Write a sequence for this structure.
């Protein structure tokens, strides 16, 4: 705040009057006050022109400011903060290149339905609109609009309160997503009367109101489930985001229907739950006749609800989603349930009474026996103490680590590292598994790890393929700088998929090959963290256990057989192959 003499304020310009004194505020303080008023406690970002002082002032005012080395990683941290807290995570970037870096994370947050606000400084409108070549000139608002849920620009200090309020409401209402808020540099130094500024701020009331399903829709869904011979519940990350954990658990257990969790819904009910069909996924999808989708979309992750994954018998789908346009996106939805997940599941629970009949025992037994057979088949692979390790033996060691620490958060990305971990590492509590989500992008690892550690205070285990780690690896310095309880395990097989490709010309390394024998653990040591090099599953288990118990930033370089991976992991079918024969 500052004191000035004034006559009046017009168009956000202070006109001085020697006879009067007035307390002033400015754009910097109004942005901070608006965020604080709405419960924003943490900002993730990268400082620089024109938002450097905004970060400093926010920190001075009690907001925690976590500074990264790259805006995309800061954006990913903000996005996962939104998923974990149901409040919009905030990412703050500089203009143009910094904005574009953050925009990748914003687009990914929107696709995954994570509430996030990207706030970027920008060049002056007068110069941008005439394309006169301002510093980092870019029409950021126009670029952001197609890639997020909503985008706003604030030009006057008196409108900051409304701008922040609209961004918050847009991010969390209905289907959550990313919002862009454009703040031109000139806005920050605009001064206005402090009392008027305080009155201009807006506290968002009930930003994500419950949306109740219609009784007729509930009746329709219940009748379908009652008539099913082989019902299945699929839980998506929307179900995890909803934090309706007890309602969901009650529905699954009281209905007796087997459930299949998508990767970020693992732990809503423990993967070891007797009704879990996770280890019998193929059988469950192929043979089910009525499928209830809870916060899951029939996108590529579920083969669009059709094709050989779903077998040759007709299916009937019940879908719970707050977005009506999601219904019938790939196949006919026989019973759409439009509403927020908590309200919909509560309504379904109210209909499960003494007249409810559990699914036929034959169906439940089919799922159980297939699950038991697959688990037994996998067990010997997980118990090998081989040197060098393969993916199964290494993940077997980490499975035990998580079993002993069920409240730890697992961050996971890569190709084989991701695909195999989804099926091997059991989760026991909700919102403890964070991974690449709907787009399947790599590069979320360190941002998610930082965001999870900051927001929850829980120990984080980030399991990374060596390729995936390369997208955000410099953030190990951020982890060390803030002393976060993050343990990183890099599955180092010397390359992408495998480290065995060669250049047929003999000129260069193969396109998928990295430096053989790289010591990623030395990177962590360079920033004051703990680095460990391991070559066997037993060593890996001991090293990770010690690191997570210590709470110290640790990176473990886990040597994996370079030939152990498979091309593109479980999505190799999406990788086109040439039909032209090689020349001899």
């Amino acid at each position: 705040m500052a004191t000035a003499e004034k006559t009046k304020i017009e168009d956000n310009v202070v006109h001085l009057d020697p006879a009067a004194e007035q307390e002033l505020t400015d754009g910097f303080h109004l942005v901070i006050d608006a965020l604080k008023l709405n419960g924003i406690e943490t900002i993730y970002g990268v400082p620089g022109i024109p938002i450097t002082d905004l970060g400093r002032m926010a920190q001075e005012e009690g907001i925690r400011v976590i500074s990264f080395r790259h805006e995309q990683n800061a954006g990913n941290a903000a996005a996962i903060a939104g998923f974990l807290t149901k409040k919009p995570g905030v990412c703050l970037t500089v203009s143009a290149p910094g904005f574009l870096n953050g925009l990748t994370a914003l687009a990914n947050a929107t696709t995954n339905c994570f509430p996030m606000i990207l706030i970027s400084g920008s060049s002056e409108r007068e110069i941008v609109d005439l394309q006169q070549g301002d510093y980092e000139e870019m029409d950021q608002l126009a670029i952001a609009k197609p890639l997020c849920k909503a985008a706003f620009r604030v030009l006057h200090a008196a409108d900051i309160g409304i701008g922040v309020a609209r961004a918050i409401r847009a991010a969390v209402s209905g289907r959550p997503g990313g919002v862009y808020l454009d703040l031109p540099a000139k806005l920050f130094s605009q001064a206005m009367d402090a009392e008027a500024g305080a009155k201009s701020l807006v506290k968002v009331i009930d930003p994500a109101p419950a949306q109740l399903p219609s009784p007729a829709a509930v009746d329709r869904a219940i009748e379908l489930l009652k008539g099913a011979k082989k019902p299945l519940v699929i839980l998506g990350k929307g179900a995890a985001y909803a934090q309706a954990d007890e309602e969901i658990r009650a529905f699954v257990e009281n209905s007796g229907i087997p459930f299949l969790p998508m990767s970020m819904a693992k732990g809503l009910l423990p993967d070891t739950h007797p009704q879990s069909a996770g280890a019998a996924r193929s059988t469950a999808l192929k043979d089910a006749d009525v499928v209830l989708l809870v916060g899951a979309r029939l996108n590529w992750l579920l083969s669009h609800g059709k094709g050989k994954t779903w077998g040759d018998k007709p299916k009937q789908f019940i879908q719970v989603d707050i977005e009506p346009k999601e219904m019938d996106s790939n196949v006919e939805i026989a019973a759409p349930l439009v509403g927020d997940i908590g309200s919909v599941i509560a309504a379904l629970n109210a209909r499960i009474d003494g007249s409810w009949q559990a699914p036929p025992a034959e169906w439940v037994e089919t799922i159980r026996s297939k699950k038991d057979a697959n688990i037994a088949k996998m067990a010997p692979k997980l118990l090998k103490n081989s040197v060098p390790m393969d993916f199964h033996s290494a993940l077997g060691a980490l499975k035990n680590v998580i079993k002993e620490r069920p409240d730890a958060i697992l961050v996971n990305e890569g190709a084989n590292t991701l695909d195999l971990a989804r099926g091997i590492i059991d989760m026991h509590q909700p919102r403890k598994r964070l991974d690449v989500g709907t787009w399947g992008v790599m590069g979320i690892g360190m941002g998610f790890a930082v965001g999870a550690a900051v927001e929850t205070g829980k120990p984080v285990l980030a399991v990374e393929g060596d390729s995936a780690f390369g997208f955000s690896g410099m953030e190990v310095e951020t982890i060390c700088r803030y002393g976060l309880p993050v343990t990183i395990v890099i599955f180092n097989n010397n390359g992408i998929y495998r480290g065995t490709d060669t250049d047929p010309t003999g000129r260069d390394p193969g396109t998928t090959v990295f430096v053989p024998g790289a010591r990623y653990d030395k990177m962590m040591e360079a920033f004051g963290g703990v680095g460990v090099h391991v070559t066997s599953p037993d060593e890996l288990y001991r090293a990770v256990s010690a690191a997570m118990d210590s709470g110290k930033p640790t990176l473990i370089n886990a040597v994996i057989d370079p030939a152990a991976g498979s091309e593109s992991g479980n999505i190799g079918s999406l990788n086109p192959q040439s039909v032209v024969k090689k020349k001899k």
Observations:
- Confidence is low (pLDDT under 50) at residues 3-7.
- The chain has three domains: 2-200, 215-368, 384-572.
- The radius of gyration is 26 Å.
